[in-house]
Amino acid sequence: MSFRLKIVLGLVSIQAALLLVLVANNLHFLQKTNDAELTKRAHVTATLFASATKNAVLASDMASLESSVNEALSNPDLVYIRVSDSRGILMQAGDPQALARPFEEDKLIGDVRDGVFDVGANIIVAGSVLGRVEIGISVVSLHLSLLEARNQALTIAALAIAALTLFSYLIGKYLSHRLEALAKGSRQLALGDLGYQISVKGSDELARAARAFNKMSRELLLAESERRLVEAELANYSDSLELLVSKRTKALSETNATLHQTNLELESAHNQILQSEKMASIGQLSAGVAHEINNPIAFVLSNMSSLERYLKQFMQVLAAYEKSDPVLAQFEAHRKEIADIKQAVDLDFLKEDMTDLLAESNAGLMRVKKIVQNLKDFSYFSAGEWQFADIHHGLDSTLEIIANELKYKATVIKAYGELPEVECMAPELNQVFMNLLMNASHAIKEKGEITISTGLEGEGVWIDIADNGGGIPPENLQRIFDPFFTTKPVGLGTGLGLSISYGIIQTHQGRIEVTSEVGSGTRFHIWLPLHQPLRQ
């Protein structure tokens, strides 16, 4: 089967199938709509005629009844009308054959077999049925309309198919001619006729393909000439080239082996530096954490000591009460002794202060628990463990850990947005937050502000950590993420904090950016994806 015939048959088959489906669907919808409309109109006509003739039936006015029947039959679609009551048929007119058939009411147009849709309606007066109207409506005109619509649709479909067939034939002929020219050129190239050119007309896609073929043919001819020239030159130097290639190959192999070993060593060193920096940071914070833990423990112990003393005093009061209870009513001296003891120990204050001391003790213990838990969350590390975590929880726990470092230098302002959980390695992100917050604290000379903002951006979240410290000079901005680069005095920094932070953010498929102005402060902007696409 030729390419031209395939195009014609394919397009015609698709068009014919679509047109047939469209025609069938439209005819079905048209018939369904007309059937519903005719059924509704038949019932309305019968009901209206029953209402119009109820007075004549009630008054037995046969003249008016006959006039109403004849007037209704002037409608060419009405075949017959029959009016009856409990005594029998009062009036009937129309097609004698239809009147001669027993009346059987039709429910749907599809039930009609004799071309007449039979419908009836009761004549009701004051809630009582006085008689009945039976009407026959012709459906021949409806069938003729549907038949005419089907014929017109089929005629249009046939014309469309014929037009498409002609168009497909012309397109197929044009494509076949162009493709045959390209095939002939390909055969000539296969036979070795490099530089063969085909005629080009027009500017469509096939014309561009023909021009590309001609260009390829010319380039093949040029390349073949150059190849022969190069082969001739290579023949003279083949021996020396083989020796040179062998030496170069051996050198490259040795270099690759050295680079591979170096990469392994660098990767190992990076992992060791990452863990060492984390441990160094935790060690740096240990003094502050100890201070934070000792404070609540100190006032818990103090409160417990006071509670012990208060309890002893309560025991004195209770002992006095126990001694004086049997004779309290007879001996005024015992009653006065109890009153003096209560006044001396200030019993009312003791009862009130004991409650406060217990509440403070519980608060202190909860603070110790929270500090220890935050330190545990921060220091926990499991390589490669990806989980969905709350960014705000990580920021808050990190702030708790370094609270002793920040409270004397800066006021922390939180401007948190609504964030979903993020797929990440939370301990590593906590390390990034701690590095940035500690740097912000060190950048503030006396008392300043650190602002933490969060929000949604596209398919990820962003975190801003800004300070109003001294800022970073422009010449240092391009180097702050370089390993071992630091502007701090010797002993106050390793120069690895920001470098490690940059690597962690890169591992999370995110980005970290910095803007700074000397004298105004610095802002670090972090963006992290909600999910890790490379892992999925």
- Proportion of residues in β-strands: 15-25%
| Largest β-sheet summary | 5 strands, mixed
How many structural units, i.e. domains?
3
Q: Mean pLDDT, as a whole number?
A: 79
Give the structural class. alpha+beta
- Coarse shape: flat
Q: How much helical structure, as a percent, in the residues? A: 55-70%
What's the helix count?
12
Order of helices and strands: HHEEHEEHHHHEHHEEHEEHHEE
**Alpha-carbon distance between the termini?**
48 Å
User: What topology, given as strand order, has the largest sheet?
Assistant: 6-8-9-11-10
Give structural attributes.
536 residues; four-stranded antiparallel β-sheet; Beta-Lactamase; 3 domains; Heat Shock Protein 90; alpha+beta
How would you describe what is shown here?
- By secondary structure, the protein is α+β, with helices and mostly antiparallel strands.
- The chain folds into three domains: 161 residues, PAS domain (Beta-Lactamase, 2-Layer Sandwich); 165 residues, no CATH class; 144 residues, Heat Shock Protein 90 (2-Layer Sandwich), CATH 3.30.565.10.
- Helix content is 63%, strand content 15%.
- The protein has twelve helices and eleven strands.
- The chain has a five-stranded mixed beta sheet with strand order 6-8-9-11-10, covered by helices on one side. The protein has a four-stranded antiparallel beta sheet with strand order 2-1-4-3. It has a two-stranded antiparallel ribbon with strand order 5-7.
- A hairpin with a 2-residue loop joins strand 1 and strand 2.
- Helix 1 packs antiparallel against helix 2, helix 4 crosses helix 5 and helix 5 packs antiparallel against helix 6.
- The radius of gyration is 50 Å and the shape is flat.
- The two termini are 48 Å apart.
- The model has no long low-confidence stretch (mean pLDDT 79).
